Amino acid sequence: MKKIVIIGGCAAGPKVAAKAKRVNPKNIIELYTQENLISYSACGLPYFIEGVVKNINQLIIRTPEDFEKKGIKIFLEHKAQKILPKEKIVIINDKEVHYDELVICTGAKPIRPNIKNYEANGVYELRKIEDGIKIKEVMHKSKKAIIIGGGYIGIELLEAFVQNGLSVEVVEANATLMRNLDCEFGDMIKNYIQDEHSQWVNFHFGEIAQEFMVDEQNNFLGVKTKSGLMLEADFCVVCIGVKPNVEILEGTGIKTGAFGGITVDKYLRTSEENIWAAGDCCETQCYLTKRPVYIALGTIANKGGRVVGINASSKEKDWETFDGVLASAITKYFGLTIATTGLTLEAAEKISSRFNLHPISATVVKKDKAGYMPDSENITLKVVADKNTGKILGAQGIGLGDVNKRINAVTSAIQSKSTVEELLHIDLPYAPPYSSTIDVLITALYRLKDQMSEN
Amino acid sequence: MKKIVIIGGCAAGPKVAAKAKRVNPKNIIELYTQENLISYSACGLPYFIEGVVKNINQLIIRTPEDFEKKGIKIFLEHKAQKILPKEKIVIINDKEVHYDELVICTGAKPIRPNIKNYEANGVYELRKIEDGIKIKEVMHKSKKAIIIGGGYIGIELLEAFVQNGLSVEVVEANATLMRNLDCEFGDMIKNYIQDEHSQWVNFHFGEIAQEFMVDEQNNFLGVKTKSGLMLEADFCVVCIGVKPNVEILEGTGIKTGAFGGITVDKYLRTSEENIWAAGDCCETQCYLTKRPVYIALGTIANKGGRVVGINASSKEKDWETFDGVLASAITKYFGLTIATTGLTLEAAEKISSRFNLHPISATVVKKDKAGYMPDSENITLKVVADKNTGKILGAQGIGLGDVNKRINAVTSAIQSKSTVEELLHIDLPYAPPYSSTIDVLITALYRLKDQMSEN
């Protein structure tokens, strides 16, 4: 029997709690969160704002009562202030709480760029439930919005705002959207949005917001960029990424990495004994290169929560490992799906000398179903491999057709350390409503094989 | 430079021709077919009958002219009668045709059960373009149909007939539909169809058709089964499977296997020198067990066609191998998708002692997307693994949601010889419109891992 104290209540924390209790029902589990609710899907907020998800309560996966019923104690609006690793104590709301095992699941917070008048009324970030509620309210009263940041959240908010009839200015420091993809994919998304919705959407690439223009009451009026561009709108959302929320570490000696996230080993132990961490407050490693990466995503938080839940409550022989991530991600802009897994060609080229890689890629544009099916759609699939070993390194896909299916197959192949040769004639299920006889993924593999046999 | 003679023009034959010409443009390629067209999608016929595909010409992938332009000679309505392997001659339309390499792509033909009055007017099989045209014509004039056989084609035709307002009697010798799946999946399909369309569809399981009832002009009136059941209808389609079309082998010494298909090695060579085979006339092997299997599917025919096209026209050092299939398959009944890859639990259990397997399975019912997305749907996924080694052996899925994506990921894992442990925390791309944070596949892997650690 152990007392396991969890700090943080969004995704990883509740998962740790539930799993640790299931593994050993005798465990005393206490979960502390600063917020007034737990276990919610932040990833669903853009769809709540858009109106696809009607009621905010749908995003709350489990209530404190659900956990209390299982014998897990939930403490809402409790701020963890300081960890004393030697004493095995964490100070919460000015009181000492003893633990046998401590789990840090403090999540992430939005990166706040250096913009003058950042605190203006009408400037929003999207991270918590209340952010979603506020943005939805202001959206319904507005005609024009500015989105700063053209990553996943930016594109999901863009869909929400366009769907609700707003005009939108998108300000992005980079030359295209989605800088985590090879640049031609960012351009394809940009071109699609411009083709479909040019009357509602304006992009401003290579522009860095410098100042929020405000009236005398500090109400937001618009954005001024470094180049002098002035954009007016009713409100603005800043979504240029998130960073680990790790203030609690101060004075603990718990190690963090280059991205500022908590460093954990494959069992998700921090550098201090009996202290674990999971979710967006942690760095993880690239499954392929074993290099540290920082990926704040609900799916990784949930998986990490499971691993810590098992490990913090069992003996070492039963521990589960978490061997890293593939930086897989997916989103959509209306009917257009964009997905990635593993290394992009750009990322593979960047690390090629250090890892002795010779990255090659094949890009195929092909129908997602038999071409004669009336709902077949073109998709573009790019698969990246190492020319020397044939090892599959990554894939990116975009299109109105079924992109996800092909990316999932590649994810599985990378996770299984597979090669072009091994996968070449992969027996993917075939029928006209689902794929062509030679699936787009197989065509890409054929082309990679051709390149591998060239000198 | 070689003269490559190909017999058969549906899927594998044209693929061999195109690839062999591309590999070495100096090759002389001649393709002979009994039919009056080549390169068509037989798999698309149910969708032509249904009306999803409007024009039969859409199912013709390439015309003889397309091939002639590439310098490939196409001989329509030419019947190959006899192969003389020693003389390297094939007799076609009573003339001797010399070859350097001969490729047999004679395909499959429907299995014809022993039913009295089989030649009655109004009894159809579905294999060729003209079959599809005839069935569509009679369907439009009819109110009631009988389908004999509840496999893939049977279910696809059932959708077509129901969509066109017909009542349908389905006669199936087995106790449920889709006998290539574990029986609970056949039952789930059956239950779905009965729930949705009980007023149009009647199933008759365990019934074997014995006689077609006819009038004096030999017109079809109905089906009489062994048990004495009498079913009346306007017409009947028999689709209980296909068998290899290998009459041409007579007297050649070319070896066939237990399923009657041509035996080929991993380079797709037959037992006679300079004679190759690809497509539905061949047996292939199970990728997992290396046992011979017979799977007549357009995707395998196309892959085999590529392999023979390369191998018949290049030196041995450049030969490609075909290492077998996973018996992957997919179909749909309106919105319901049914898919399989690798071994079912029943199949794994059958061979467990010979292959020293201890098959276990996990079946998970879960939403295909975040549960709060209004278009999320339940899917049922069953994953089969070997308890001793953790090796993933197969998966089956059914549901109104995205089943295919999960099956493709498992296909890729099996093809990569992966294990439950290796795949456990697979970083499948996650976003609310595409999956839950812990994908249904990962839940299944978690459950398999739990079973593996039990004694």
Give the arrangement of secondary structure elements.
The structure is a homodimer of 455-residue chains.
Chain A: E1 3-7, H1 12-23, E2 28-32, H2 45-50, H3 64-69, E3 72-75, E4 80-84, E5 89-92, E6 95-98, E7 101-104, E8 108-110, E9 123-125, H4 129-140, E10 144-148, H5 152-163, E11 167-172, H6 183-197, E12 201-205, E13 209-214, E14 220-225, E15 230-232, E16 235-238, E17 242-244, E18 275-277, E19 284-285, E20 292-293, H7 298-311, E21 329-333, E22 336-342, H8 345-350, E23 359-367, E24 378-386, E25 392-399, H9 404-415, H10 420-423, H11 440-453
Parallel strand pairs in A: 1-2, 1-7, 2-3, 7-18, 9-16, 10-11, 10-16, 11-12
Antiparallel strand pairs in A: 4-5, 5-6, 8-17, 13-14, 14-15, 19-20, 21-22, 22-25, 23-24, 24-25
Helix pairs in contact in A: 1-7
In brief, what are we looking at here?
With 455 residues, chain A is of the alpha/beta class. Helix content of chain A is 25%, strand content 26%. The first copy, chain A, has helices spanning 12-23, 45-50, 64-69, 129-140, 152-163, 183-197, 298-311, 345-350, 404-415, 420-423, 440-453, and strands at 3-7, 28-32, 72-75, 80-84, 89-92, 95-98, 101-104, 108-110, 123-125, 144-148, 167-172, 201-205, 209-214, 220-225, 230-232, 235-238, 242-244, 275-277, 284-285, 292-293, 329-333, 336-342, 359-367, 378-386, 392-399.
